[in-house]
Amino acid sequence: MNRDQFLLEVSRRLRLVRTEYALSQDAMAQVLGISKKTLVETEKGRRTLSFPEAAAVVAVFPGSEVLGNAFGGELSDLLRAVAFENADVTYPPTMGGKVWWRAVDDVGGYRIQQNIVSGHYRLLDPADGRMFSSFDLAEVKAYRDSCGIQ
Fold first, then answer.
1. How many CA atoms lie within 13 Å of 111's alpha carbon, on the beta-carbon side?
2. Sheet containing 130-134: which strands, arranged edge to edge?
3. Which run of H or of E encompasses 25?
4. Surface-to-core class of residue 149, CB atoms within 10 Å of its CB (0-12 exposed, 13-18 middle, 19+ buried)
5. Which of 58, 92, 113, 128 lies 20 to 30 Å from 33 when distance is taken between CA atoms?
6. pTM for this model (two decimals)
């Protein structure tokens, strides 16, 4: 999944999220800080949310079952993978990926996992700290190798 796919998927589910939270179009537009016209155009499939708009949806509705089921659980990790796709960043610890993640590789306790829904990868340290996220497995392995992990 890349940024454009992420934006399209959040846009496609915007109406379902609004319905899930029992919000009117006026209320949803106000919550997200967008115009009602922008919301209506997005819900009708005539436009796609911008990255800041989609990020706002994910941030404001982190408990959304609609989004959680669409993207494989915890949304903040996917948002970070999309946002930091081409940036170096230090991530906080995780819970180890018990539900939405499959093990891909383990070298010296440093684990690469793949999200079973979105397909993005992450590198965890032995204490479940998130070190790196990407949609490219080779990039995650290269990052791990560049850290001297053998």
1. 20
2. 101-107, 110-115, 121-124, 130-134
3. helix 25-32
4. middle
5. 92
6. 0.63
Tokens standing for residue 94: 């995780």
Q: Which residue has the tokens 């995780």?
A: 94
Q: Which residues of 54-66 are buried (b: 16+ CB within 10 A; e: fewer)?
A: bbbbbeebeebeb
pLDDT tens, position by position, 89-120: 776 667 666 778 999 999 999 999 999 988 99
**Lookup: tokens for 120:** 């993005």
For residues 68 and 117, give the distance between their C-alpha atoms in angstroms, rounded to a whole number: 10
Element (H, E) at 67: helix 65-71
Alpha-carbon distance 63 to 148, whole Å? 37
Q: Which residue has the tokens 């949806």?
A: 57
pLDDT in tens, 57-81: 999 998 899 999 998 877 887 888 8
